[in-house]
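Batch manifest, entry 17 of 40.
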Amino acid sequence: MIINIILFSLIIFIIFILTKLIFIPYLRFCNYVKFGKGNFYPILGVLAVIQKIIQVYKDIYYYFKHVHDDGKNSRIYVQNYFSKITIGITDTNLLKAFISVEDKYYEKDPYFTKALKRLMGDGILFSKGQKWKNNRTAMSAIFHFDSLQQRIMTIENLTKKHF
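Output type: structure tokens
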């Protein structure tokens, strides 16, 4: 009787783990990949591929640099990272639209956000509500076409100097 209970508990635990790490992430992946392209790697996700790429190419960003090597330039790239689904936006117009809206419609990854906040502070990427609106208003003038056009020579000189 006890063996049956242990066996049943083990089966339930395995089903729970499979559901949490494979089935649910795969369903989420399928929901988003129809808008672009992507790869699903069970359990570890893209981390398993990146580890192999680091060993072969000695470049952690090789995977992301070569996303479009297959010739299919899609607007988004979907992948899993453990049980989470990440969406990489590769279309500049879509990225512009994405950044210009508040984060009511998407969830920022708390681990990624926390790490970036330590490096970058609480700027436009991480602020919310009225603070986000104020930061966006201040930043929009900087990236206005006329403003950028006036700075082209400075940008060109700095680029030549440093690169």
